[in-house]
Amino acid sequence: MDYRGVLSSASRWKKSSLYKITIADNTKELLTYINRAISDAHDAGLSKIEYKLPINFRSIDNNISNDEIQTVIYFNIVTELERLGYDVRLVMPKKYSLLTISWVVKADDSDLTEMKRKLLSLQ
Q1: Would you say the pTM of this structure is higher than 0.90?
Q2: CB 54, CB 98: distance < 8 Å
Q3: Rounded Cα–Cα distance for residues 119 and 114 (Å)
Q4: Which of 9, 41, 86, 108 is spaced 20 to 30 Å from 51 by Cα?
């Protein structure tokens, strides 16, 4: 007897699992808060923030540890910040996790060289 098509594959359920949804929702929420903190710091004339990340996350089920969820969420946050050009450091003592984010606000050296060349040509 042919049973193909009767059962869905396990990979189908992984794509829309509570695990993935929880990770995505937590990551998005934290990135929103981080973005607000960066914007506020920039408006205050700063180019660096320190942001305390939560260390405990909602348990999905008994098979997935808080450490696993924390690792995936932290990785997603760091990866996204680095992709957008931020310098990121993460310190994780036992009682908290501190994310340090900085961004360059000065002109690139190549831009400065071009500006100097232009100014010298006007003399």
Answers
A1: no
A2: no
A3: 9
A4: 108
